[in-house]
Amino acid sequence: MSNTFLSPLHVQREVHGLSIVVRAAGEVDDFTVLPLRVELQTALAMATAPHPVVVDLSAVRFFGSAGLNELVRHHRAAEAVGIPLRIAAAHKAVLRPISLTGLDRVLQVWPDVEQALTAGRSAWTAC
After folding, report:
1. Is 52 in contact with 35 (CB distance < 8 Å)?
2. What CDD domains does the record tag this protein with (predicted)?
3. Domain interval for residue 13
């Protein structure tokens, strides 16, 4: 039997050309949100406008208010420097809290990472 500790939240950052993808898997709540916060801060520091930072929440099983707060905080920070912050999620665990709080009118939500990465790409070629 393995003694490997499995964190309730695993977060990693990937570079896709000039875009950054932050992937989260597990549960996002008050006790687990710190790795997501750190990776989003790093991603925004690395990002190059107008290329997006995409937050992939497709493997998140629970998304609480701490996660919502991080998305809003980083959406504002990204907006201030001209970087699109896009959310990739297509399941109820993430979409429902975003919708219930009205954040679906503020955040850019896409069904998957590929669509979030390619949205508005024709505008980038002009830059």
Report:
1. no
2. STAS_anti-anti-sigma_factors (cd07043)
3. 9-118
* Any domain includes 4: no
| Confidence band for 3, pLDDT divided at 50, 70 and 90 | very low
CA separation for the pair 12, 21 (Å, rounded)? 8
CATH of the domain at 28: 3.30.750.24
pLDDT score of 104: 96
Asked if the peptide bond before residue 52 counts as cis, ω within 30 degrees of 0, the response is: no
Q: Total structural domains in the chain? A: 1
Rounded to whole angstroms, the Cα distance separating 19 from 83 reads 10
121: confidence class by pLDDT, cuts 50, 70, 90 = low
- Assigned token pair, 49: 């406008």
Instruction: Quote the pLDDT of residue 124.
Output: 41
